[in-house]
Amino acid sequence: MTDTTPATTRPTGTQPAEAQPAETPAAVVPLPVTAVTCLEDRAHVERTATVELAAGVRRLRLGPISALAVDRTLRAEATGGTARVLDARVVRTWTPRAPLPPTDRDSELRRRVHALEEQQRAETRARERLEARLALLSQLAADLLREVGEGAGRGELEPARWTRELDRIDSERETHGERLRASRARLETLGEELAAARRALDTGEVEPPELLAHVEVTVEADEAGPAKLLVGHLTPCALWRPAYRATLSGERLLLETGAVVWQRTGEDWSGVRLTFSTARSALASEPPRLTEDSLSLRERTSEERRTVEVELREEEIGSTGPSADGLPGVDDGGEVRVLRAPSPASVPSDGRAHRIPLSSFDTAAGSEFGSAPELSPLVTRVVRFRNDAGHALLAGPVELVQGSGFTGRGELRFTAPGAPAELAFGSSDAYRVVRETEESRGSAGITQRTVVTRTVRVHLSRFSGPEDVDEQVVAVRERIPVSEVSSVEVKLRKEACSPPPDELDAEGIVRWDVPMPPGSRRTLTLVYEVSAASKVAGL
Q1: Is the pLDDT of residue 539 over 70?
Q2: Mean pLDDT, the chain, whole residue set
Q3: Closest CA to 177 of 225, 204, 137
Q4: How many domains does the chain have?
Q5: How many other C-beta atoms lie within 10 A of the C-beta of residue 231?
Q6: Is the Cα dihedral 302, 307, 310, 311 positive or negative?
Q7: Does residue 156 sit in the same domain as residue 196?
Q8: How many angstroms separate the Cα of 353 from the Cα of each of 200, 241, 264, 372?
């Protein structure tokens, strides 16, 4: 069975020669993979072959290639001569394997799997015979008991024969029942051994493919000589994701960028040039459809004029990033990014993760201990550095390494070249954070404005050993609401805060830089007021 869906590649203005029919392809010309561009969920494979051509039209069979090649993306061209590619197509051939026993050329593991399968089949037949024998003995016992009942009713008593037959049936049932239990136990053991052997066989050996694909190209040459054929196509079952390794040594950070590649295309990529792109060729490029949107005006009711509805909501400070559902996509900041491996690499077709190094840089890094008590009671060490890689750092997981070795995994967000970035190197067990909140409500002024006063207290403690003598600064961050309407005002009462905060930004984030000597305790107090006019509802 063959699939000859054509993917024609023909230079402009070139027509196939009709006077000279193409030759039937003879030997298969190898067509190895020389370059691969890994996309987010597929790969573009480039292949190269050098052939000797005679003048005229000739058909060549190149390959084999992956049977997963997408026919409509097949492109072929000839370089280095006067040859031209008139037609190119993918031809697939299915050759089922015959159920033959392994030979001496097969591995010991494959022969063991075959032997276990034979033993399992033989033991299954023995179990079926035992089950049939026990069923026959059960039927014989039932017939004998019926005969005993009928004979006793007619007065024909044969107790000696009945006793002898029942004893013989019970003895055989017990013997065959024990054999059946032993057979089932052997079958269970054989099943476990066979499953383990098959897993080892799947891991250590690869079955030859039943579906093979080749590329048939029709080439026209003006004169005899060598020609270089370039063939490219897309293939599924291949993807990549960025990954990093950060090593912190004092005030220096070494960040190594890599690409993790998975592929199960059916052929190995050996010594190929790897390129990693964030282009999404599968996304449609059609503009959105325009629909009518009707707007209407109406007079506000008297109730609506007297009342302003407000509500408190959580607002995340926006940043573009990959989806958290399932395997995250590649976050490229909205622009296609292309990364190239510095040297040829090999990726086997085993479906496993293979890491390809891309770049690395060493830069100065500053660190601080940070705490956000509203979100977490932990104090985390945060390292800040500048992206000196020369290219954008895509969002991805980071292996964190310090002087003591591997310390955990973190996450790096998308970072443009030269932009600052930060990494969290885990929490510190030497700190404890307790957060308390209070709220009071009242009114002030002739206008009867509603005033809500909130008090937040953060208790920060440091537990240190005898060897800890250095003072550490902990950056504690809290937040206050930010009003979007003039009827609601938010005021930070600095005179009531203890100590006064060091910084308050436009997003409502309040920050203290708290020095913490060994064994010290600190209490931070934050007080702010939310006042609203009398017509405000929902606060």
Answers
A1: no
A2: 85
A3: 137
A4: 4
A5: 25
A6: negative
A7: yes
A8: 19, 10, 11, 36
Residue 287 carries which DSSP code?
A: P
Q: Are 194 and 117 contacting, i.e. CB atoms less than 8 angstroms apart?
A: yes
How far apart, in Å, do the first and last CA atoms of the chain sit? 73
Distance CA 69, CA 86 (A): 20
Do 362 and 243 share a structural domain?
yes
Q: Which residues contact 170 (CB under 8 A, 6 or more apart)?
A: 141
The 10s digit of each residue's pLDDT in 122-135 is: 999 999 999 999 99
Which band of pLDDT confidence, cut at 50, 70 and 90, is reported for residue 283? low
**Assigned domain for 90 exists:** yes
Domain boundary among 388, 409, 428: 428
Same domain? For 173 and 148 the reply is yes
Is 193 within the bounds of a domain?
yes
Q: What is the DSSP letter of 73?
A: G
Q: Is residue 291 part of a domain?
A: no
Same domain membership, residue 91 and residue 166: no
How many other β-carbons are positioned within 10 Å of the β-carbon of residue 146? 10
Are both 247 and 356 inside the same structural domain? Answer: yes
Query: Between the CA of residue 318 and those of 315, 321, 329, 485, what are the distances in Å?
Result: 8, 9, 18, 21
Instruction: Say what percent of the chain tops pLDDT 90.
Output: 47
Encode 18-54: b = buried (16+ Cβ within 10 Å), e = exposed: eeeebeebeeebebebbbbbbbbbbbbbbbebebebe
483 and 439 belong to one structural domain: yes
CB 394 within 8 A of CB 330: yes
> Do residues 166 and 227 both lie within one domain?
no
- Residue-level length of the chain: 539
The tokens 């000589």 sit on which residue?
225
Verify that 254 and 401 share a domain, yes or no: yes
Q: What domain range is 413 assigned to?
A: 238-280+333-428
As a whole number, mean pLDDT of residues 59-64 equals 92
Residue 499 lies in a domain: yes
Tell me the pLDDT band of 9, cut-offs 50, 70 and 90. Answer: very low
pTM above 0.70, yes or no: no
More confident residue, 213 or 449: 213
pLDDT given for residue 429 in this prediction:
86
